[in-house]
Task: inverse folding
């Protein structure tokens, strides 16, 4: 089989993408008034419009045929049926099993996996009901009324995003601590009563330095402020979510307070597992279940709809067009609701940790660009910071706009938010067709050329169901791109080097001895820091 990059289809797309006469977005719209219908898709309250990209019908067909070259269909079946597609770690990537409620798939998750995920959900349901019914008490007998999740990366970003997107003023307080900078934890401890606080220690490995350090600090805060011993504090105030229960037990957490998940759940795909416990505690188990159903809707769609009508596949192909054929190396995520302000950060991990790689599944160098730089912020704030760059910089950044059509909680702000969102989309695509004149002349600085690509996702409403669907949409988009680039999207070896270096350098900072510093390039920095430390002590 030829490598995908050597196929005639890939070469034709390269030619198309570099064509100086490539039709502009404006020209494509002028040519075909029905373009918005032809270049949009919908699933249960989630509408994707990808018409404002320089993609003609011919380009779309070429992009679709890449999926066949990449055997995408087989790869989807392999993922859903639990094949060990994470080859470097010899694991399945079965996050879809966590939200599978028995609907039809080409090949669903194995039965024994369904049984264990159901047991797990039952354990989450029981704790969440006990907490929300006021029956969960701390070491002094007082009702627990607040939760602090301690975790980082996938053990933080997903549940934090969902909780902040869906919480109301009457939901119990859930706070998230992730940074090893102690001001993160201490700042949040000020907002809770130790006698009434439950800590969820979320870590797939239960060895992550940031999380274990923060967990130990939280424990010593509890023993100090409540005047109880560690055993008592842990028993009443600590639960763990982990795929490594024996280490959590060693930490002192009782077996019945450990919510286990499995090595086939990747960290950045784990919010659907027990890592979603803060969602169930904060918003209610029933809301967590609706979130799972929303994701399951997208799973069924992804695994059954033809490629041309498949939302994750089309979103992925538009991204491939931008990265590989138009050479756009960044991608902005622009949600027009404060509730989704954490979405860009969440997607940074999902996309960049999954596909920010240059070696393929057969350990060969990839000759083309892979995951773009994901960044962004919420509207309307970004309009007053980096929007200028999006409109007029020579660096073109494709954007995903996310808007909510009706928001019962914030109905007064819906209109201005939508108006601003649509204004940005229009300005990026079409520029100022009638540029402002000054002294009868158009100043180049005032010309907004437009022809800047964007996708638009409109959620009818932002609720657990649509949010679940949208998160699964992006997960599958990342999967499709990984398949096309022939990447293992489920490992992250690049992260490990930083972790081991940090351990060694921390020792050197402690001892003041940097003789172990083999590279010497940071020896001067360590020396400077240690001198400064001595001066100020
Ligand atoms: O350092 C990266 C990473 O391994 C992520 O992939 C993961 O989500 C995060 O750290 C946290 O890991 P853990 O859940 O094992 O604490």
Result:
């Amino acid at each position: 089989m030829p490598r995908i990059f050597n196929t005639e289809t890939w070469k034709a797309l390269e030619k198309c993408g570099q064509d100086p006469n490539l039709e502009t977005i404006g020209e494509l719209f002028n040519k075909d008034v029905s373009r918005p219908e032809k270049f949009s898709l919908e699933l249960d309250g989630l509408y994707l419009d990808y018409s404002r990209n320089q993609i003609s019908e011919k380009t779309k067909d070429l992009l679709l045929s890449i999926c066949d070259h990449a055997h995408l269909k087989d790869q989807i079946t392999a993922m859903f049926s639990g094949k060990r597609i994470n080859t470097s770690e010899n694991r399945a990537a079965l996050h879809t099993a966590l939200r599978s409620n028995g609907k039809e798939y080409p090949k669903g998750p194995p039965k024994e996996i369904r049984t264990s995920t159901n047991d797990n959900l039952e354990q989450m349901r029981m704790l969440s009901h006990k907490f929300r019914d006021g029956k969960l008490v701390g070491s002094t007998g007082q009702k627990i009324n607040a939760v602090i999740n301690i975790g980082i990366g996938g053990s933080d970003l997903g549940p934090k995003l969902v909780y902040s997107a869906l919480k109301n003023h009457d939901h119990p307080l859930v706070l998230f601590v992730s940074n090893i900078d102690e001001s993160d934890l201490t700042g949040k401890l000020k907002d809770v009563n130790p006698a009434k606080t439950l800590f969820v220690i979320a870590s797939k490995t239960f060895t992550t330095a940031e999380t274990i350090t923060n967990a130990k600090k939280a424990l010593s805060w509890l023993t100090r402020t409540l005047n109880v011993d560690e055993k008592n504090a842990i028993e009443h105030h600590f639960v763990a979510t982990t795929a490594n229960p024996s280490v959590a037990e060693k930490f002192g957490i009782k077996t019945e307070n450990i919510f286990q998940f499995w090595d086939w759940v990747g960290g950045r795909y784990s919010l659907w597992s027990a890592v979603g416990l803060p969602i169930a505690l904060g918003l209610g188990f029933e809301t967590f279940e609706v979130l799972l159903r929303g994701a399951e809707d997208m799973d069924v769609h992804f695994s059954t709809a033809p490629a041309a009508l498949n939302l994750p596949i089309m979103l992925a192909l538009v991204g491939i067009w931008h990265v590989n054929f138009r050479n756009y190396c960044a991608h902005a995520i622009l949600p027009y609701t404060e509730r989704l302000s954490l979405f860009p950060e969440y997607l940074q991990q999902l996309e960049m940790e999954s596909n920010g790689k240059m070696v393929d599944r057969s350990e060969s160098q990839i000759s083309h660009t892979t995951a773009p730089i994901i960044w962004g912020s919420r509207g309307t704030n970004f309009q007053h910071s980096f929007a200028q760059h999006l409109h007029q910089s020579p660096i073109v950044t494709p954007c995903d706009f996310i808007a909510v059509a009706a928001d019962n909680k914030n109905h007064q702000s819906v209109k201005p938010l939508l108006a601003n969102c649509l204004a940005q989309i229009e300005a990026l695509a079409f520029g100022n067709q009638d540029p402002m004149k000054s002294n009868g002349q158009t100043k180049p600085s005032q010309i907004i050329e437009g022809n800047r690509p964007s996708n638009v996702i409109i959620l009818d409403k932002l609720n657990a169901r649509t949010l679940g669907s949208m998160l699964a949409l992006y997960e599958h988009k990342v999967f499709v791109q990984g398949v096309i680039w022939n990447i293992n999207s489920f490992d992250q070896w690049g992260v490990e080097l930083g972790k081991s270096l940090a351990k060694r350098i921390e020792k050197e900072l402690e001892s003041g001895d940097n003789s172990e510093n083999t590279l010497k390039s940071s020896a001067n920095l360590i020396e400077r820091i240690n001198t400064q430390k001595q001066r100020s002590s």
Q: What stands out?
A: The CA atoms of residues 1 and 69 lie 9 Å apart. The longest helix spans residues 111-132.
